[in-house]
Protein: RNA polymerase sigma factor
Organism: Compostibacillus humi
Amino acid sequence: MTDEELINEIKSGSQAAIEILIRRYYNEVYGFIYRRTQQQTLSYDLTQEVFVKMSKSISSFEGKSKFRSWLITIALNQVRDYMRTKKKDFINIESEWLEQTLTDTKDNVTYLYEKKEEAQEIRDALAQLPDFQSEAIILKYFHGYKYKEIAEITNSTESTVKSRIFQGLKKLSKIFRRENNEGRSKSGRI
């Protein structure tokens, strides 16, 4: 069934259709929230809140945008609200990810550590950007949204989204160049 068909079923009172939509989009919503918060437990909690809000407000969904975009807009607003109200408590918990990864797999620990380090560098760099730039970059490159969809989700224009992504990528490039130069000078290569 398509999203539209499921939404019509939900509007007719079908609980099963809600469950199908949740299963269809749970990983994407969770992944988006996790990339913004970098906290596993918090991401699960916020994801649950997103789907509660979706269930309560789905009857008002008019289909002017794709359901997927509408749902990610709810997730984006949920993260923004949380960060605004809990900014002082917002702590990056890196060891939680590493512990979970090591528990879940028997792969080479060195490889996992390198991948974790690489992912952390990207998260740290994204955290240095203004929220509006990092959100646009995450939606574009981690979730594959088109500029038009990102504009709908963030309530801005396509040209604004393109500008945010362009400027954000320029800043990320500078951040990575600066970090590479600092790494070389610390190791005595310059």
In short: Confidence is low (pLDDT under 50) at residues 88-99.
